[in-house]
Amino acid sequence: MSARRPVHIIGINAYHGDVSAVLVRDGVLVAAVEEERFRRIKHCAGFPAMAIQSVLQQGGITGAAVDHVAVSRDPRAHLLRKAWYTIARRPDIALVRDRLRNRRRVGDVRGPLAAALGVSRDALPPVHHVEHHPAHLASAFFVSPFADAACCAIDGFGDFVSTSFAAGAGTHIDVLDHVFFPHSLGILYTAVTQHLGFPSFGDEFKVMGLAPYGQPSMAADLRRLVTLRPGGKFELDLRYFRHWSDGVAMEWEDGYPTMGPVYSGAIDEILGPPRRPDEALTRRHEDIARSLQAVYEECAMHILRGLWERTHNPRLCLAGGCAMNSVANGKIRAQTPFREVYIQPAAGDNGTALGAAYHVWHEVLHGSRGFVMEHGYWGPAHPEQALLDGLASRSDPEWTYTVDRLDSPESAAREAARLIADGCIVGWYQGRMEWGARALGNRSILADPRRADVRDLINTKIKFREKFRPFAPAVAVEALADYFEDAVPDPFMIQVYPVRPEKRGIIPAVTHADGSGRLQSVSETTNPLFHRLIREFEALTGVPVVLNTSFNENEPIVDTPQQALDCFLRTRMDVIVLNSTVVRRHPAGRGVVPAAAAETRG
User: Fold this and answer.
1) pTM higher than 0.90 for the full model?
2) Any idea what DSSP says for residue 43?
């Protein structure tokens, strides 16, 4: 009797921001990646052809072995409501035209899909269109450790929905209610973000980082933009927005996604004139940011308390772009009845590829549960030879480099800890690439959190970004309660908690202006090498915390050793530790040690 062939499902997010692909085998996640890591375009839109090819390669299969494809958009969803809206509201014809064009692209993925899988259109497996918000909900619940939970998705909008209330049990998610377009908490945050002079796709996190510098002095004014309704519902005052009526320019076809201004001129009456992107930030801008964050948190907690009243379940699974608001996430247990919260690391639109695949596995194929996402390392791994080849062929008049080959990963962790304790800024490249927006210790830049000057140094000399942007503390999970108040383990760096007052002077580089930190708890179980590095740093300094930021410079997080080397060479990092190879930067005058002659030591 022959063994049963495993079922392979490819999930994709296509023709939206943050396009991505995942591979699920018999209900177990094999690989998950974003297209941006290969195209080198942040938040890359279009079709995730390279991401599909990557997950196939990581899974050791060809496209012919794929049994199902799940697409995290369904152009047919809520058609009657869309038609009624068009008749009743009569939006700008450009808005209707753009939506129809995107709908056609999403509805006809067979051509690019066949090319990415390397099969003919006739040989394609069944293609399932999964509605956007059910995909968000599935991306959280079906990979959570909970047998049952309240589920919520909050974002800008997708398939005409901005907020979903649901209950998950076993292999089924029951959607209880929605908030429909044009009312959207994500659009509220985006509108004020744009007004503050941050127009790029995904800039909302900058405003979240700016907020602690201000006071919520304009919160009462911003509350005029949104009205809270019973049951966790809400409505925007549409006078202040134009996404619902005008032809707001949006580009999701290919490359960098763009979105024109979604706020109307009426908002100037409340907030004053909009800030130009090149204009200096003032106290007024800081106060607007803080007020926006305060109003957002009020609305988000209202939504979640409404969900609690519907479910009375103490466990929450949260997804959608708004679930990336880590400041609000850290307050959920304090401000709502929910006692346990699960948010997977790609909670935004990238994660809908994951949810679409698991929706098909559980809701369509009735597969059993068993997989829990406990870590975020689902991308490709690479050997260091490309790094060594790139150095050996390099001629640099300003800098020279020495190369050491260590005898084990543990030796690399020990050496990296020593270098960090000595004041070096270290590029740390190990194992499989992270899934989601955060570097979680495999594609990271690490530094000493005790140095008060290191945050400005990294922002200005390495990341080349705004000085107000904070950095994350990666803390050994055993020491979590010693450094943070009321915190729970969070391996995905997606919740913010207060740093204990007595520790703020010890780790100033990762303590934000309001005394908080967006922590990553690191355990020996989920990332033994990174955990070893932190413990080695503690042995040298007495502090079980390191500063962790993503290995990039105004670009997507690096994937390959060559990308890591390029980033290292064009910035002012001191050292790169790639697998067990250590490369140090020196002023010109000391030559590069050729790869073949590099010293191997313990």
Assistant:
1) yes
2) T
